[in-house]
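This part of the workshop introduces the protein records we will be handling. An example says more than a description, so a record of this kind follows:
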Amino acid sequence: MKPKRKKQLTTFLKIAISFSLIALVFSELDWKEIGDLLKIANPFYFAGAVILFLISQVISVFRFNIFIRKIGVRLSFEANSKLYLLGMFYNFFLPGGVGGDAYKAFALSKSHQKSLKKVGQIVFVERFLGIVAIGFMFCVLILFVQTPYAIYWNFGISILGMISTLVVLKLIIRFLHTYKKRIYIGFFYSILIQLSQLISVYFLLKSFQIEGGYLIYLLLFLVSSVLSVISFAGLGIREAVFYYGAQWFQFNGDISAAVALSFSLITAAVSFMGILYLFQKIPLKKK
C-alpha cells in the first residue's frame, strides 16, 4: 500500500473510531443530569483547569526547544509558541491534511536548511518521551490506589513500570547518543506536562463537586491519554474510558464523562487559537 493511501486509511479509521465511541457514549448519557451539573459547576476551579492546561502546553514549547537547539535551530519563544499552536490546530481540526508534527518538521527543515529526517526524528522522540512519562506517572499513582492486593500487586506494577521506563530511556539514548543530556531533560519536562494536566483534571473534578475517587479518575485519564493514539485527537476514547471506567469502579458515569468532555473542549478551544497563524507567516528565523 502506498504511504499516502496508508495515511489516508489510518486517518479515516481514527475518525471512525472517535465518532463511533462518541455516538455510543453520548447515546447512554443522562443529558439532564449533565446540564444540572454544569449549572452548579464552580467557575474558579474550571478556570484553574484551563490555566493548568495552558501551562502544560507552555512546558511543551520549552521541551521542543531543547531538542531543536541541538541541531542548530534557533527560535524565539514567541515564534516557537505560534508554531506549536498551529501544530495543535492541524492535529485537532484538519484530520485529512498535514499532521501538526509533520508540519512543524517540514517548516523547520525548510526555514533552517536542515535534514527533514533529522528534524522529524526529534519530533518523534519528543512525543515518544511524553508517552513514556505517562507510563511513569501511572506507575507512581497506582502505588496509592487501595485494592485487595495493594501491597503486592500495586508495588509489583510500579517497580516493573519504573524499571521499564529506565530501560526505554537507555534505548532512546543508545539510538540518539548525542542527545543524552537532553533526553533526561526532555523526560523531566514530560513529567511536568503530565503533572500539569493531571492537576487540570483534578480541578475539573473539583469544579463538578466530585468528592473522592480522585486517584481512579487520574489513572483513567492517563489510560485515555495513551489510547488516544488510536483515535482522532483523543476524542471519543477519553469520554469512553471515563464513562465505562467510572461504571467499573461504581462511580457516576455521567459525571465522569462530563469531566472528560470538558477536558476535550478545553483542548479544542486552545487548539483553535492556532487558526490565527494559518495564513500568517511565522518568523522561524531568530533575529
Observations:
- The longest helix spans residues 180-207.
- The chain has one domain: 3-277.
